[in-house]
Amino acid sequence: MRRLIKIDFINNSVMTKLSVNINKIATLRNSRGGDNPNVVKVALDCERFGAEGITVHPRPDERHIRYRDVFDLKEVVTTEFNIEGNPSEKKFVELVLANKPTQVTLVPDALGAVTSNAGWDTVKYKSLLIDLVAQFKEAGIRTSIFVDADVRMVEGAKETGTDRIELYTEPYAENYFKNKELAIRDFVTAATRANELGLGLNAGHDLSLDNLRYFQQNIPNLLEVSIGHALVCDALYLGLENTVQLYLRETKAVD
C-alpha cells in the first residue's frame, strides 16, 4: 500500500500544479439525493491537503456538478478555480461570467456525453473560439482550450487568442503500458510547439498515479494537470489526504 508522504516543495524548480476535479464527488452525492458528501467541504479539504486548484465540469443535465455548486464553490475556493465545459451552451457561458473563475477551459462535449472524448477542431471552429476567448478574457478570466496532441490544433488554438491549451491525455493513458515512449511522443511534439508559440500548457484526462510522473517529466513547461476520476478512485482505498499528497508528489517529481 502507498504511504502518506509529506513533501516540502519550496526548493523544487518543477512548477506543475495539481487541480483536483471534484465531479465524481458530486456524482456520489447525487446518487442518493441530499448533500452527502458535501462538495464544498471536499473542495476545501483538498485545498487543505495541498491541492493547488479545484476543477468542476458542469453539464447541462447537472448530473454531477450542479450550477448552484459553482456559485457555492466560488465563495470559498482560495486556490485556482477552473470551470470546464462546452461554451456552445449559453447557460454555461453565463455561469462562467457570473462567477469569474481563475480559468475557464473550453471543452467540445457532445450533448449527453459520458465524459470528454476529444479536443476542439480549432481550425473548423476558429471563429467561434475567437469570439468566446475574447468574451472571457474581457471579463478577466484566463482561457484554456481543450485540444488533442496535434500540432495543427495547437497552432489553431494560438490563432484564437487563448492563454493556454489543455492537452487531452486519454490516448496517452490508454497506451502508456503498451509503449510509454510511443504513447507520449505526439504529446511532446504538441507541447514543444505550444511552448514555441507562447501558449501556456495544461493537461488532463485519465492521468493517474501510474502514468502521471512520466508525463510530467517529459512534457516541457507543464503548468497544470486536472485530475478527478483516478484520484477519487484511489482515495477510496488510500484516503483523500494521502491521495492528494501522492498526486502532488508525482507533479513535483524531479530526476
TrEMBL record:
<feature type="binding site">
    <location>
        <position position="32"/>
    </location>
    <ligand>
        <name>3-amino-2-oxopropyl phosphate</name>
    </ligand>
</feature>
<feature type="active site" description="Proton donor">
    <location>
        <position position="205"/>
    </location>
</feature>
<keyword id="KW-0963">Cytoplasm</keyword>
<dbReference type="InterPro" id="IPR004569">
    <property type="entry name" value="PyrdxlP_synth_PdxJ"/>
</dbReference>
<comment type="subunit">
    <text>Homooctamer; tetramer of dimers.</text>
</comment>
<comment type="pathway">
    <text>Cofactor biosynthesis; pyridoxine 5'-phosphate biosynthesis; pyridoxine 5'-phosphate from D-erythrose 4-phosphate: step 5/5.</text>
</comment>
<feature type="active site" description="Proton acceptor">
    <location>
        <position position="57"/>
    </location>
</feature>
<feature type="binding site">
    <location>
        <begin position="228"/>
        <end position="229"/>
    </location>
    <ligand>
        <name>3-amino-2-oxopropyl phosphate</name>
    </ligand>
</feature>
<feature type="binding site">
    <location>
        <position position="21"/>
    </location>
    <ligand>
        <name>3-amino-2-oxopropyl phosphate</name>
    </ligand>
</feature>
<feature type="site" description="Transition state stabilizer">
    <location>
        <position position="166"/>
    </location>
</feature>
<dbReference type="Pfam" id="PF03740">
    <property type="entry name" value="PdxJ"/>
</dbReference>
<feature type="active site" description="Proton acceptor">
    <location>
        <position position="84"/>
    </location>
</feature>
<comment type="similarity">
    <text>Belongs to the PNP synthase family.</text>
</comment>
<feature type="binding site">
    <location>
        <position position="64"/>
    </location>
    <ligand>
        <name>1-deoxy-D-xylulose 5-phosphate</name>
    </ligand>
</feature>
<dbReference type="InterPro" id="IPR036130">
    <property type="entry name" value="Pyridoxine-5'_phos_synth"/>
</dbReference>
<feature type="binding site">
    <location>
        <position position="206"/>
    </location>
    <ligand>
        <name>3-amino-2-oxopropyl phosphate</name>
    </ligand>
</feature>
<feature type="binding site">
    <location>
        <position position="115"/>
    </location>
    <ligand>
        <name>1-deoxy-D-xylulose 5-phosphate</name>
    </ligand>
</feature>
<keyword id="KW-0808">Transferase</keyword>
<dbReference type="GO" id="GO:0033856">
    <property type="term" value="F:pyridoxine 5'-phosphate synthase activity"/>
</dbReference>
<dbReference type="InterPro" id="IPR013785">
    <property type="entry name" value="Aldolase_TIM"/>
</dbReference>
<protein>
    <recommendedName>
        <fullName>Pyridoxine 5'-phosphate synthase</fullName>
        <ecNumber>2.6.99.2</ecNumber>
    </recommendedName>
</protein>
<feature type="binding site">
    <location>
        <position position="59"/>
    </location>
    <ligand>
        <name>1-deoxy-D-xylulose 5-phosphate</name>
    </ligand>
</feature>
<comment type="function">
    <text>Catalyzes the complicated ring closure reaction between the two acyclic compounds 1-deoxy-D-xylulose-5-phosphate (DXP) and 3-amino-2-oxopropyl phosphate (1-amino-acetone-3-phosphate or AAP) to form pyridoxine 5'-phosphate (PNP) and inorganic phosphate.</text>
</comment>
<keyword id="KW-0664">Pyridoxine biosynthesis</keyword>
